[in-house]
Amino acid sequence: MRLPAGREGGRRRRRQRWWAAGVMAETKAESKADWMGSLPAALRSYPLSNLAIPGSHDSFSYWVDEKSPAGPDQATAIKRLARISLVKKIMKKWSVTQNLTFKEQLEGGIRYFDLRVSSKPGEIGHEIYFIHGLFGIKVWDGLKEINTFLEQHPKEVVFLDFNHFYAMDDNHHYFLINRIRSAFGSKLCCTEFVEYVTLQYMWEKKHQVLIFYHYPLYQEFPFLWPGNKIPAPWANTTNVQKLLQFLETTLEERSRYGTFHVSQAILTPRVKTIAQHLTRGLKNTLVHRNLPMILNWVKAQKPGVRGVNIITSDFVELVDFAATVIALNDLLLEEDEPAAKS
């Protein structure tokens, strides 16, 4: 049966709108997946420490294993309580700070990853897992996922910040470091003066990965950057106003160090917070309510020597976080315009 001309035309227009919306969404996703490679030429010679780069907090926590015991990052009392399955379900609600996998975060523009790792006590061998209260996936699986993305996007650069280690002796560290080398090979950028590391430098060397390793063994491997090259001051508060004041204060201090810098735009639950909102979890208790204010702070920032560099968030997909951070780099171009005219 043929539809009346007017109705058929209406359906065609709807199909065209749906198609156009789909193309726009796909283009937007692609632009974030390749945003570093798409930056204007003028910004490719800026130190990466002067660019605005979106990152995620506890980047790996999109999946944690409720069937595993509580991790060695937890107090003894919590480990005992975690033998009860209901307790582990509650732990999961407060341990998960991201919904997206590494691949999805990368495709959405995230370029800095906050990584905490551990061996599994009692397990034979030296396998290392991500951890936040409960064990996550094997680190090796996460590294391979990141490397696959980098193979497909050769102009993108990632920061992998290994900043907490649990139940690991030197043998575990050597095992992990060899995994890192096996995963990325020549993509690893050796330590250098921070101000020398630009996108242009990385592309010329065919490097895509900076590894920060907060453990003394970094000194034995030229591709491991010391943790003090990427300070990430932590506000440790549930109060959004205190958080924003802390972020401002630590930004004022950053220029004296000549390092990369992480602004942790995150709120941290206290024991009391968890006890009062047991089943609501982190996202429903702290994140949803405060993200708009945090995003407004981000929008008011500028990158540069005295400005923001890496900014991290929980649940990076809940607002247009990555796109907002990336857009701050346009302000660097505005700074250049008067100089070009004079």
User: What pattern of helices and strands is seen along the backbone?
Assistant: HEHHHEEEHEHHEEHEHHEHH
Envelope shape: globular
Determine the mean pLDDT. 87
Largest sheet: 9 strands, mixed
Strand content: 5-15%
- Number of beta strands: 9
Task: Evaluate the radius of gyration.
Answer: 22 Å
What is the subunit organization of this protein?
single chain
- Treating each run of at least 4 consecutive H or I residues as one helix, how many helices? 12
Tell me what you see in this structure.
Helices cover 43% and strands 13% of the residues. The chain has 12 helices and 9 strands. It has helices at residues 5-33, 76-81, 85-95, 102-107, 139-152, 170-184, 199-205, 240-254, 271-276, 281-299, 321-327, 330-341, and strands at 53-56, 112-119, 128-132, 134-138, 158-166, 209-213, 224-226, 262-264, 310-313. Strands 1, 2, 3, 4, 5, 6, 7, 8 and 9 form a 9-stranded mixed beta sheet that branches. A hairpin with a 1-residue loop joins strand 3 (128-132) and strand 4. 37% of the residues are buried. The model is unreliable at 14-27 and 338-342 (pLDDT under 50).
In short:
It is built from 12 helices and 9 strands. The chain is an alpha/beta fold.
Features of the shown structure:
342 residues, alpha/beta, globular, disordered C terminus
Write the SSE topology.
Blueprint lengths: L4 H29 L19 E4 L19 H6 L3 H11 L6 H6 L4 E8 L8 E5 L1 E5 H14 L5 E9 L3 H15 L14 H7 L3 E5 L10 E3 L13 H15 L7 E3 L6 H6 L4 H19 L10 E4 L7 H7 L2 H12 L1
